Amino acid sequence: MNLDSTTIPLQPADAPPRIITPDPNRIFSARAARFEQLAEGHALGDWLRYLAALTRAQHAALQTLPTLALPDAEQLALAREYHMPPLPAQSWNRDPAWRLVLRQIAGELLPVAPEIARKALDAVLALPDDELEKIADRVLQADLYGDDAAQLPYVSAALQVLWTAGAALLGSQIVPLDVPGVCPCCGFLPVASIVKGSGNPRYLHCALCNTEWNLVRVKCAACDANEGIGYRHLEGGSIDKPGAVRAETCESCKSYLKIIYPEKGALDPVADDLATLALDVLVDEAGYVRSGPNLLLAGLG
């Protein structure tokens, strides 16, 4: 695919965009590079390097993905009118090409996968289409547990490629929703938020389609509360600088989501989230529940 990232401007024109759609030419390749960078000297270095290989396979699959059938003009108009996501994760009639993507990713990973991962990849490749679709349905409902959890990240990775392609194609046709805590493209949950650009606006980053959408600072992405918000971070560790990744906690709903500060060294919401799992342990032990998933996590730990 050879598409351009599209942004939707706010008024006035110099304000930050409300929605930023993914650049299919770099979203996964840049993420893979970040995983490689984070792996250096990290206690989970081998795992992060494997995730880099997985993400490079996503990039390769996205470049060869056939053009997707998207909602027609009438469906898109209805989505805009009623502030609904145009590619809803749980009801979009997803293109079966995602299964080809899955097999392509699995085939590229097998030569470099550790033994336990090879078993999961072999299991994925052996599944019939109807079973793969059932697993996909579970992933899209954020059900990331069960006896087959080791297979879920690969299914997730393929679905990410499909929805990322769709988000990039839709571009400026994606509009903000009335519910600020879910993705305006697919209605899925954010993996993290990221502070970026002039004026330091905060964007939630979709765990599925890689769309980003603006949410004001010091506001809970899960329950919309703007009081009782706190921040926790690890001192030192393997990330670039202390405080580059923090957990934004909410006393109202007892949830948390990480917030990424690129000027402090962190660069990618998905990669930097997985490189700071010790922060999740710290916040979990304090009684908070994570409000959005990282789809590459289940079964790979």
Give the tags:
301 residues, alpha+beta, FdhE-like fold, 2 domains, nine-stranded mixed β-sheet, 9 helices, 38% helix, globular, disordered N terminus
The H-level CATH homologous superfamily of the largest domain, spelled out, is FdhE-like domain
C-alpha geometry: globular
Number of structural units classed as domains: 2
Kindly report the CATH topology of the largest domain: FdhE-like fold
Summarize model confidence as the mean pLDDT.
91
Number of helical regions: 9
Radius of gyration: 18 Å
Stretches where pLDDT is under 50 for at least 5 consecutive residues are: 1-11
Helix content: 25-40%
What's the oligomerization state? Answer: single chain
Question: How would you characterize the overall build of this protein?
Answer:
The protein is of the alpha+beta class. It folds into two domains: 23-173, FdhE-like fold (Alpha-Beta Complex); 190-290, no CATH class. The protein is 38% helix and 12% strand. The protein contains nine helices and nine strands. The protein has helices spanning 27-39, 45-64, 73-81, 97-109, 115-126, 129-140, 152-170, 269-274, 277-285; strands at 7-8, 19-20, 190-195, 202-206, 212-214, 229-232, 245-250, 255-260, 289-290. Strands 1, 2, 3, 4, 5, 6, 7, 8 and 9 form a nine-stranded mixed sheet that branches. Strand 7 (245-250) and strand 8 (255-260) form a beta hairpin. Helix 1 (27-39) packs antiparallel against helix 2, helix 4 (97-109) runs antiparallel to helix 5 (115-126) and helix 4 (97-109) packs across helix 7. It is globular, with a radius of gyration of 18 Å. The two termini are 32 Å apart.
